[in-house]
Amino acid sequence: MHSTDIAHAPTPEPATGDRRRWFALAIVMTAAFMDLVDVTIVNIAVPSIQRDEGATFSQIQWITAGYALAFAAGLVTGGRLGDIHGRKRVFLVGIGGFTVASALCGLAVNPEMLVASRILQGAMAALMVPQVLSIVHATFPAHERGKVFGLFGAIVGLGAVSGPLLGALLTEGNLFGLEWRPIFLINLPVGVAALFLGSRFITESKAPRALKLDLPGVALVTLALLMLLYPLTRGRELGWPVWGYVSMAGALVVFAALVAYERAKGARDGSPLIELSLFRVKSFAAGIAVQTVFGVGLGVFFLVWTLYMQIGLGWSALRAGLTGVPFSVAVSVAAGMSVQQLVPRFGRKVLQAGALVMAAGVLIYLAEADHYGLGITSWQMALPLVVMGAGMGLIVAPLTEAVLSEVPREHAGSASGLINTVQQMGHALGLGLVSVVFFGVIDERLAPAEVGPAFVDGFTHALGWVAAVLGAIFLLMFALPKRPAQHVEGAAGAEEAPVTGEKKPELVP
Fold first, then answer.
1. DSSP assignment string, 410-462
2. pLDDT band of 96, cuts 50, 70, 90
3. 55-92 residues labelled b (16+ CB within 10 A) or e (exposed)
4. 494 pLDDT exceeds 50?
5. Do 355 and 395 contact (CB within 8 A), yes or no?
6. In this structure, are residues 3 and 207 in contact, taking their beta carbons and an 8 Å threshold?
7. Using DSSP, how many helices (H) and how many strands (E) does the chain show?
8. Which of 41, 277, 496, 500 is positioned for an S-S bond with 167, CB 3.0–4.6 A?
């Protein structure tokens, strides 16, 4: 019987008197921030890495793509490992490995070592990141989760833009003559502190019934994601070969085989890698669709935006990073307001308003970029960036809550892994679309004087696509619940007890 169809005995919420949960929250949020920054920080340092290490274009691409591929391929597995072996234990293994991989990146002696270290870093992030939402879900009672997810949304906003800014400061600062290496080495003290404090303050939690790692499921999901993401990552560089299209089409077949296998596995022993019954929860299924499409829009915008400012307008990495500060501040402020004040009062309409506000910001940016051309200033960009950031803030925090609000607690790890996986898939799809919506309107051979105007045209063309994606998100949001479910007692299903020897009641058929 599916978990959403099972009546369960009432179970107590996590205790509200334990102050350690707020220390635990600070630690897991720091880890989430490290990951978000690490995804973007490398882009700013690419010219320095290329110059210092003599890396080829393919190697440079793999320094960024290797992380994303390993991360996306391991997220669902990382979530399930936390369910089985304990979220705290797997989180600590992940953050320890992430810290070691960061050290290897910073000490890399050649491009090959840097690529391998980035792949390891992505794999360790895949162990670490799914535990963040699972630990929050298991540690905080329902009435506090709105506030917590508001903080999470603020962290997402800060991480999205502060990565390039931090990368610019560290690279141009050339600390101790280390050039680009501090962008990785800065993770060491943060990681060591998180490892020490996490072992003290995070409470262990597991799924309430014994689960097993579904190795065939791991193999199928990894194969499907690699078949989809590898051609997207390398397609433009290789001239979009036929095998790339065959591989992406084949990924759909493997995904179908995965669904069939997981359904049979769930019926056989109740321990599948992907809990398909989650998709019977309307809020989860709709939220996953919105997360995927939202990831596409963000994947297109952030890459094109960086290329537009640094190559098209010829701005320094530091100026480009500073230009994004208004966006980051607006996301953080709006995220906190949306969950704590607006969503409890207006429900789903807040998320839909966010999509429309963000689309309005994109269209303002498009008009300004087209009007001012190469003469545009950072101050002129501030208005559309603030509007876009406010719209994004209204979406990111309550969307996470909407996806997880009705998920049975024993499947929190699997659900968190799926959320992060579809975000990465959407982001990768967006990066693949950049070849069409941006480079597709730019001639391959440009004289130096033609580069700026061509990149401005490409940027405005891409912004039109981003606005269209946000319109699609607005329509998809009609499938989300009208009101937040976090205050409905029992909505989260059966809860797991901290691992202290005390057992909570399990689901009763």
1. GGHHHHHHHHHHHHHHHHHHHHHHHHHHTGGGS-SS--HHHHHHHHHHHHHHH
2. very high
3. beeebbbbbbbbbbbbbbbbbbbbbbbbbbebbbbbbb
4. no
5. yes
6. no
7. 17, 0
8. 41
